[in-house]
């Protein structure tokens, strides 16, 4: 019988060592291996997804760039960001990748709501966004995701008036997940200006601190961990 993933708040961890540990667990796990949810923070680095284009890394300077096997383009990790790595067996959990992504995003939205912030999805661009003019407004976005007509092309993301507060980059191997989601709490945001975040030139990036929410890393880590553990349960 599958159960909610075990929550482990690890604090600051080395990125490369953490990825190696996730890969090892994923490769060695069997049908009885319990699911886990790792919450951590990394030193400053850029990570480049499998399909990532080097042209999106504009001026990395002294910040290391690490190639990684998650989906997506380039993003930045650094102190003051809560990074969550769900290590789940989706077949045992009973849902598919699209539902998995939706559940992660919902956990982020509920976490932000606990701090009074309204998170939004954007069609065609995984992750969570907030209004730059009023992050606390509950009004629906004009560009909110709509039901797609059969045969219609993929939507072109519309980031008008929005800043990205959480980035998603996942890997699924033999029905098992690793990598995950990063939520910006109180960071130095300047390194985001030295890349095209998630492959989008000029995409604004924000954190809770810059939109007026004085939350600590520990508070957000606990809240996001609890939300993810509950929403990723079978």
Feature tags:
234 residues; alpha+beta; BirA Bifunctional Protein, domain 2; seven-stranded mixed β-sheet; globular
Write up this protein.
With 234 residues, this protein is α+β, with helices and mostly antiparallel strands. The protein is 22% helix and 26% strand. It has a seven-stranded mixed β-sheet. β9 and β10 form a beta hairpin. The longest helix has 18 residues. The chain is globular and about 50 Å long. The termini are close together.
Give a brief rundown of this model.
The protein has 234 residues and is an alpha+beta fold. The protein has helices at 15-28, 90-93, 97-114, 217-231; strands at 6-12, 36-41, 45-48, 65-67, 74-77, 81-87, 120-122, 125-131, 162-173, 176-184.
Per the CATH scheme, the topology name of the domain at 6-116 and 168-199 and 214-231 is: BirA Bifunctional Protein, domain 2
Assigned CATH superfamily of the domain at 6-116 and 168-199 and 214-231: Bira Bifunctional Protein, Domain 2
Q: What spatial order of strands do you see in the largest sheet?
A: 1-2-6-10-9-8-7
Helix percent band: 10-25%
CATH top-level class of the domain at 6-116 and 168-199 and 214-231: Alpha Beta
Structural class: alpha+beta
Rg: 17 Å
Number of helices: 4
> Whole-number average pLDDT?
95
**CATH architecture designation of the domain at 6-116 and 168-199 and 214-231:** 2-Layer Sandwich
Sketch the major β-sheet.
7 strands, mixed
**Spans with pLDDT under 50 lasting ≥5 residues?**
none
Task: Give the number of DSSP strands.
Answer: 10
Reading the helices and strands in chain order gives EHEEEEEHHEEEEH
Strand fraction band? 25-35%
